[in-house]
């Protein structure tokens, strides 16, 4: 009997959770996440301020002509040409969205539901290529259509991924032929 009493005396109850410390850690973590999010947002806004020299984006003309090609997919953003990590955020060019692209003799019409639409005039097109990545998005080799175009004094690469990736192949020669025609025409005028 004395052994049972000794065993009962030696047993302790489980430690009680220190709720104040646990709540303190959760609140501290939430504040840290909020601070990181705020800093990222301020960085995005600062990048837009630095790119404020970029002129406003052209809009679609009243009569762009018949469509040569059209496709639907995703717009993944725009960067400074040749620098696939230098994202351009001014005028909403950094906002990812769904996209409907239409190529006409007048240029490239980029319709983005939920984001700002823009138009790339035919004389601003500089070429197209299949690539694997653009700022914040990396795909398989050739999984992204990158269109290079001039805007103001800056060359811009814009990345698109169509719902049917096989459609990318017909866009590259179509845009390249338009950009070569523009270069030939500009050279003949001089």
UniProtKB/TrEMBL annotation:
Ranges for domain PH: 55-175
InterPro entries named among the record's database cross-references: PH_bac
Key words, A-Z: Membrane, Transmembrane, Transmembrane helix
Transmembrane segments: 20-40
Protein name: PH domain-containing protein
